[in-house]
Amino acid sequence: MASGGFLLLSLFLFSSLSSSSYALSDVEASFIARRQLMHLTENEDLPDNYVSNYKTNFKFSNSRLKGAYIALEAWKKAIYSDPSNFTSNWSGQDVCSYNGVFCEKALDDPKIEVVAGIDLNNADIAGYIPPEVGLLVDLALLHINSNRFCGIIPHSFSNLKILYELDISNNRFVGRFPETVLSIPDLKFLDLRFNDFEGEIPSELFEKSFDAIFLNNNRFTSTIPHNLGSTPATVVVMANNNLSGCVPASIGNMKSLNEFILINNNLMGCLPTEIGNLEKVSVFDISNNNFVGVLPKTLNGLKNVEHLSISHNKFTGIVPRNVCSLPHLVNFTFSDNYFNGEEEGCAPQKKEPALDDENNCIPDRPKQKQSNACNEVISKPVDCSKDKCGHGSPPSSSSPKTPPTPPTPKQETPTPQQPKPTPPPEDYSHEEAPKHHERSPPPPVHSPPPPVHSPPPPVHSPPPPVHSPPPPVHSPPPPVHSPPPPVHSPPPVHSPPPPVHSPPPPVHSPPPPVHSPPPPVHSPPPPVHSPPPPVHSPPPPVHSPPPPVHSPPPPVHSPPPPVHSPPPPVHSPPPPVHSPPPPVHSPPPPVQPPPPASPPMEDVFLPPHFGSSYASPPPPIIAGY
């Protein structure tokens, strides 16, 4: 309790100083991460008899609802700020009436009601996740994106055995990759975007049966695991990190891959020829890296690619006609490389596909590099057959190691006590627009955030496939030094993106807002007969239409791929949901680009609000229910 009070005190201290603090540098973020890890627990396990021994005057119809009450009561106490009073009614025994909490009949026992989904998207809540959340054993959907949750993901998440969708994006979580999520057997949609996770991406991630994996805009610093090709995911986004090494040759095994985004990392080497096996890919964006060599001849195997961006790299040689004339190509951006020729049909034209060849070394073309800059690279051709990255194997020296994270001190598990209704948190006024991460701010990743707080519709027995869209990410290369603006993704629609005729903006310009809608995830989580209510928060400034999502230029935005995966087994037809969904909460105001980062301040324990508000797949889809 003492450490909790200390953390709370530090939050208030930070709030009083927030007007003078802005985006965080890597050093500041690392400092905050270490402090948070010192005060918040990760591996604290609750005793098996914790629920039965918990003392309360409330009576519950079953022990699972009692466990849910204990979990939500502990979570309410772990909240430091709730400016919109979203959790003001989180008290009392009727947990199914709590804002953002959805109940359904248990999959393994239709006679009892359980908490099946929680959606706190865009509630602007500050706090952390206590280990008691692991008592929500019937949870199939957990969406808490666009809040100010901090600290680490507790080990108790491994108890959420039927969790199907996990969206914790756009918060302030820290520490290593939360490997506890890899022990959740039915998890299909994993969204960790816009946090401060660091260290290596575990190879075990690609051995799981995820439909969509979003890791962009964190601080990961490893190579891409060699078993990348083992994942059945249709969407993989790792943009805006600090990844190094090469693209593994195993990428050619990703037969169902629809979107692959690696924008703005430190990747290098030649592209593996196995990329030509990606026949279903519609978005392929590796811009803003250090790739070298000539384009593999197999690139013409991308039969369904619509948006292809290889800009801001060090490719050389000739741009081949068979790539420029791919049948479904809408936009091919190969600007800012060292190509010294392009075959017929590759010069930009007014009709589709939109081609961008600026800032290369192509004779008789406008806006090319100076000859001395070209000669410096072209005079030293790379032989991809001998290059150590030619086959995607990571170079021995390119695996940066992050210093070990300090161990998390154990806190005493609170002894069960008589719960007391918590008064609604004080309503803090928003005097300034939330601020977003700065670090080497990302070129916008079109990773669409999902819809905001849409309450789930009633669920009526046998399940037709539900299209719970995991947000696709279509990211344009450019701006690396400014925070992503708020993204309000519209409901999925199917219209093509406008062709982009201009080269990606320079790396130091502010990134365009990210607003690509989430791609429909055709992983039918069970019987949901009514589609999720549309979210009416149009993205600023460009309104990108939905899936296949082709988001508007600057860079190249592409359609979100449908993620196909089988729903978790449904053991009994679920009856209609008995608890009315909460009202739709409108997203926070657009974020104004913050001024340059201020120097680290003493005793600051929580980062400023990085307000990219965007939602995640709508809560209505409760897999298996």
Please give a structural write-up.
With about 625 residues, the protein is mainly beta. Helices cover about 10% and strands about 15% of the residues. The protein has helices at about 1-15, 25-40, 50-55, 65-75, 320-325, 370-380, and strands at about 80, 100-105, 115-120, 125-130, 140-145, 150, 165, 170-175, 190, 195-200, 210-215, 220, 235, 245, 260, 265-270, 285, 290-295, 305-310, 315-320, 330-335, 340, 355. The protein has a 12-stranded mixed beta sheet with strand order 2-3-5-7-9-11-13-15-17-19-21-23, with helices on one face. It has a 6-stranded mixed beta sheet with strand order 1-4-6-8-10-12. It has a 5-stranded parallel beta sheet with strand order 14-16-18-20-22. A hairpin with a 7-residue loop joins β2 (about 100-105) and β3 (about 115-120). The model is unreliable at about 1-25, about 390-445 and about 450-615 (pLDDT under 50). Keywords: Cell wall, Cell wall biogenesis/degradation, Glycoprotein, Hydroxylation, Leucine-rich repeat, Membrane, Repeat, Secreted, Signal. It comes from Phaseolus coccineus. It is found in: Membrane; Secreted, Cell wall. Its main location: membrane.
Order of helices and strands: HHHHEEEEEEEEEEEEEEEEEEEEHEEEH
Q: Strand percentage, roughly?
A: 5-15%
Shape: elongated
Taking all Cα atoms into account, the compactness measure Rg is: 24 Å
Supply database-style keywords.
mainly beta, 6-stranded mixed beta sheet, 625 residues, 12-stranded mixed beta sheet, 6 helices, 23 strands, membrane
